[in-house]
Design brief:
heterodimer, A: 290 residues, two-stranded antiparallel ribbon, 12 helices, 73% helix, B: 454 residues, alpha/beta, D-Maltodextrin-Binding Protein, domain 2, 2 domains, six-stranded mixed sheet, five-stranded mixed sheet, 13 strands, 44% helix, globular, ABC transporter substrate-binding protein (chain B), Bact_solute-bd_prot1 (chain B), signal (chain B)
Chain lengths: 290, 454
């Protein structure tokens, strides 16, 4: 009976397995081979051993991109994540404009990235709205091309990315908060617990599964960041706003260096796997069940 | 048992449907059209076995540059009209994707046998011919008419694998009105160039407008800015760079970057240099806010569009190339868009006919005028309607013309130098490590560069 059941289950798995093998595993294994070659994605690849991997640690652009990528993930972890919890806790309260504010926080998530990028590039350009406002406020010393200077471009992109992704995290946390039974808070109030105690002893532990997921998404999203710097700055000025994903893309498509690009992609994958593994170990241990 | 059979059959059907969906369709001579293309609904070709001129079919033509400019639309209309005369029931499906992503898509399409039957590309004839993506067109009638300047660009091992629409150049285009008002003339030396920049800035105009948000404009500026100096030092300097006898870390490149840094520090570029793109920079130029722009020879045509459609006050445009300290200048001339026939296309004769129609004086004449390119056919005379293009032609005839230095270094090294350039224009200082990075990448990836023909 059990053997029949396994056979049926295997048949159900077969279509998905075929798709995965065809479109994921097979290309991945082929890619591993290409990462050991010099290949312009047109002519035949030439095997060069570990040269691509070795050069990753000499390539100033890749190193700068890696630094920026880690900054992005770290900022998401330390700023965006707590901020999202805080906003979710505030929005979880009942007040007149609650639904409006929830929609407002989530609004950037549903907007097209291209539209957002065009709007923000207009706002942040040298002759843009932000500088106009600064001039009106008498802060002309602060006026600059926010996306065109090496010392402001990446922090501007970080802030934009956090702004755009914040609503996504807030919605997760709101859903998590609403699944916490209200009577736990009521009981703790009767026992004399204050707001901070209620937050630390009830909200955080019971929200831990959501924190695990959101932290995972923030870290992976930060490490894979591509679209906003690609549209707004192409990684410039210089290499100031490169991320690893953008550097990988440019190596393949602008520099016709597909073998090197794939090697960088493999390393990025390993970085993501290691970091998220550590994160999941840490956060899952703190999860509690109701 | 019956239940299990039904289940098994259902699963097999699902798998069959999925596999059918994933398989490539090689029956369609026009290849697999992009889903968004307007002509897709008509794209199923009903090519008759006879191959006669009354057959109904759709032929795909890929390109990245055919936009809404008037001369481009005329080019499309002219091609369609001529092709209809040959094949009354044929439809040309224009697979246009504006910008550099076209080349990425084309590579993927060629690798997966879904590329257009006929397609435009640039600087990839050698690579594509090497892997048999292109049809040998040496026997085509227009080949004998190709000018000596364009023929080498599509020749691989003595065979012709495409037709080039012309030779394109670039340089500095200037507003004659502003120059006249300030009593300025086109500079003969770099010192004169610096002096006129100062005067223009003093008159509260932007001396040079850059649109570096479009990355290709960085490369174009760099190529033109470097050209005269490097070729002035030695006409074989670029080849020496490739051979390793000269270095990107050398004093020559450093001196050039110092000059760009100097131009930035003196405020001769627009403050929006990194946040505006090429069309916005051309707006700045044609609206009279900036006196000079470094662009390709399509600039006069684009300016004309701005004067007509955007209501900018018309002015005469002049041309010069950046001179070196001794007054020497060289102009980078390179083959523009190259047209080839896909070796996997089922519409071989129809494709050859389409290329033959395009590589004809009637089609190329208006295109060359609009695009500001030098015609690719011998004996083909083109009359440019604006004085700027005539100045450009005079400069071409009088000066040295060569390939840009970027044609002799790896793409990764070129990208690295372009990044250094944007860093400088942003106001930061470049460091020797930036040039070391470029040289290292050049040495590592040199094998990926196919040198231009001698």
């Amino acid at each position: 009976m059990e053997r029949k059941w396994i056979g049926t289950a295997a048949l159900f798995v077969l279509p998905a397995l075929l798709l995965f093998i065809t479109f994921t595993y097979y290309p991945f294994i082929r890619s591993l081979y290409y990462s050991f070659t010099t290949w312009d994605s047109i002519r035949k690849p030439v095997f060069i051993g570990l040269d691509n991997y070795a050069f990753l640690f000499e390539d100033r652009k890749m190193i700068a991109a890696a630094m920026n990528t880690f900054k992005m993930a770290l900022f998401g972890l330390l700023i965006q994540n707590p901020l999202a919890i805080w906003i979710a806790v505030l929005l979880n309260r009942k007040f007149v404009t609650g639904y409006f504010l929830r929609a407002a926080v989530f609004f950037p998530v549903i907007m097209s990235l291209v539209v957002l990028s065009v709007v923000w590039s207009q706002i942040l350009s040298y002759e843009g709205t932000l500088n106009l406002v600064l001039n009106q406020l008498g802060l002309s010393g602060w006026v600059r091309d926010w996306l065109g200077e090496t010392n402001t471009v990446f922090i501007t992109i970080i802030l934009l990315t956090q702004w755009q992704g914040l609503g996504y995290c807030v919605i997760f946390y709101l859903a998590g908060l609403q699944s916490i039974p209200a009577d736990l808070y009521e009981a703790s109030r009767i026992d004399g617990a204050g707001a901070i105690q209620r937050f630390l002893k009830i909200t955080v532990p019971l929200l831990m599964p959501t924190i695990t997921i959101v932290t995972f998404l923030i870290i992976v999203g930060g490490l894979k960041l591509f679209d906003i710097p690609y549209i707004l700055t192409s990684g410039g000025p210089g290499t100031a706003s490169y991320t690893l994903a953008l550097a990988i893309y440019n190596a393949a498509f602008r520099e016709n260096n597909a073998g090197y690009s794939i090697a960088a992609g493999v390393v990025l994958m390993l970085i993501i796997m290691v970091i998220t593994f550590i994160q999941l170990q840490i956060t899952r241990r703190r999860e509690v069940e109701m | 048992m019956a239940k299990q059979k039904r289940l098994l059959i259902s699963l097999m059907l699902i798998v069959a449907v999925i596999m059918a969906g994933c398989s490539s369709n090689n029956n369609n001579g026009a290849g697999n059209a992009t889903e968004t293309s307007q002509a897709t609904s008509k794209a199923e070709p009903t090519v008759k076995a006879t191959g006669g001129s009354d057959e109904a079919f759709t032929i795909r033509l890929g390109g990245w540059f055919i936009d809404d400019r008037t001369f481009m639309q005329e080019f499309k209309a002219n091609v369609e009209k001529k092709y209809k005369e040959k094949y009354p029931n044929a439809t040309i499906q224009w697979d246009i994707l504006l910008g550099a992503t076209y080349f990425d898509r084309l590579k993927a399409e060629l690798a997966s046998n879904t590329a257009p039957d006929v397609f435009f590309h640039q600087n990839t004839v050698n690579q594509y011919a090497e892997v048999d993506y292109l049809v040998d067109l040496s026997d085509q009638p227009w080949v004998s008419q190709l000018s000596p300047g364009t023929r080498p660009a599509t020749t691989v091992n003595g065979k012709i694998f495409g037709g080039t629409l012309g030779l394109s150049g670039a340089g500095v285009w200037y507003n004659k009105q502003i120059f006249n008002d300030l009593g300025l003339a086109a500079p003969a030396t770099y010192a004169e160039f610096l002096a006129l920049c100062e005067q223009i800035k003093a008159a509260d105009k932007t001396p040079i407008v850059l649109g570096f948000k479009d990355t290709w404009t960085v490369g174009l500026f760099m190529s033109n800015f470097f050209s005269s100096v490097l070729n002035g030092i030695d006409p074989t300097f670029n080849k020496q760079l490739y051979d390793g006898e000269k270095s990107l870390e050398g004093e020559e490149i450093q001196a050039l970057l110092n000059k760009v840094q100097n131009l930035t520090e003196k405020g001769y570029f627009n403050k929006t240099a990194l946040s505006i793109d090429w069309p916005q920079s051309s707006d700045e130029f044609t609206s009279g806010n900036a006196a000079m722009i470094v662009q390709g020879a399509w600039l006069p045509g684009a300016a004309e569009e701005n004067f007509t459609k955007k209501g900018h006050s018309r002015f005469d445009i002049g041309y010069f190339e950046f001179p070196d300290d001794n007054g020497f200048y060289s102009i980078n001339l390179s083959p523009s868009e190259t047209l080839s026939l896909n070796a996997k296309s089922k519409l071989q004769q129809q494709g050859k006919d389409l290329i033959a129609i395009i590589m004809n004086e009637d089609i190329l004449g208006p295109y060359s005028v609009g695009n500001g390119s030098l015609p690719p056919l011998e004996g083909m005379n083109v009359t440019y309607s604006n004085t700027a293009m005539n100045e450009f032609l005079a400069a071409v005839n009088k000066g040295k013309t060569m390939y840009g230095f970027e044609a002799f270094i790896s793409s990764s090294a070129e990208t690295s130098l372009m990044e250094t350039m944007t860093k400088i224009v942003s106001g930061a200082k470049y460091s020797p490590a930036d040039l070391k990075d470029a040289q290292t990448k050049h040495e590592k990836d040199k094998a990926t560069r196919v040198l231009p023909p001698e």
